[in-house]
Amino acid sequence: MIHGHSDDIATAIRTRHLQTPIARVLCYGADTPVLDVANALADAGFDSAPVTREGEICGYVHRADLVDQPGTLAAHTRPLTASRVIAGDTPLATLLPALRRAKFLFVVDGHDIVGIVSPADLNKQPGRTYFYLLVSAFELYLAERTRALFADQEKALLLLPQSRQERIRDRLATEQREDVVADIVAAMDFTDLLKIVKKTDALRGAFGDYSAAKWESEVSAPLIELRHAVMHTVRTLATEAPTSLQRLISLDERLRRLLSA
């Protein structure tokens, strides 16, 4: 059964796969003039930066705290606290809510700070891969449930618009000519399977208390949008906005819940 793999996916991508190595992060000594750092962060488009003392990271500063302030960073450095650090082996599913609470986190390996991670890092390939794996697993699970309910797959096909029926039949015929072992369901797209569930009370009920309208608004529409976002790198998957992270957290939880139904 496909749904048994959801836990494997949830732990496949770790924080260390997303982090920016600390060697590539702009860090400033505690004795650096505030004005210099404020200008440098503004030019780089960064909101925060680690602060070092004697070569060791001792805290961080927010650019907003430095505006029109005199002196050095020492007076404006915020200390490292437990809420600001995360282990490199932390699964992405656990990282998401931590990032919602803090816009960036220091990544630790043992006693060492080895990187930082922020919402922007979710747009890297590992972040996209995580959600792609979840959506793909759900697509396979939908196909599995559809086959189980429709012994005669032709009946499932007839639930789709005529234009989609024709394309699926054409695809199936092509695969059969090429000696590819396939059935009607295998020739369907993700959107086809979602539509079949929407139109089938027994299938919707297997996933929870979903009306056709609720399935469309809470499952079909957001998951199709998520699939487009993860497959096209020109599209932004996550931003610093709390609503953006909350959306990903909700989609992650929903997908894993659906996969366990």
List the helices and strands and how they pair.
Blueprint: H1 6-10, H2 15-18, E1 20-21, E2 28-29, H3 34-44, E3 48-53, E4 56-62, H4 63-66, E5 78-79, E6 85-87, H5 92-101, E7 105-109, E8 112-117, H6 125-149, H7 153-157, H8 162-177, H9 190-198, H10 201-207, H11 212-231, H12 242-259
Parallel strand pairs: 2-3, 6-7
Antiparallel strand pairs: 1-8, 3-4, 4-5, 7-8
**SSE class:** alpha/beta
Order of helices and strands, N to C? HHEEHEEHEEHEEHHHHHHH
Bulk shape: elongated
Average pLDDT score: 94
Percentage beta strand: 5-15%
Gyration radius over CA: 24 Å
Strand order of the largest sheet: 1-8-7-6
How can the largest sheet be summarized?
4 strands, mixed
Number of helices: 12
Helical content stands at 40-55%
Low-confidence stretches: none
Distance between the termini: 11 Å
Count of domain modules? 2
**Count of distinct strands:** 8
InterPro entries: CBS_dom, CBS_dom_sf
Pfam family, one: CBS
Organism: Micromonospora terminaliae
Protein name: CBS domain-containing protein
Short description:
The chain has 261 residues and is an alpha/beta fold.
What labels would you give this structure?
single chain, alpha/beta, CBS-domain, 2 domains, four-stranded mixed β-sheet, 12 helices, elongated, CBS domain-containing protein, CBS_dom_sf, CBS_dom
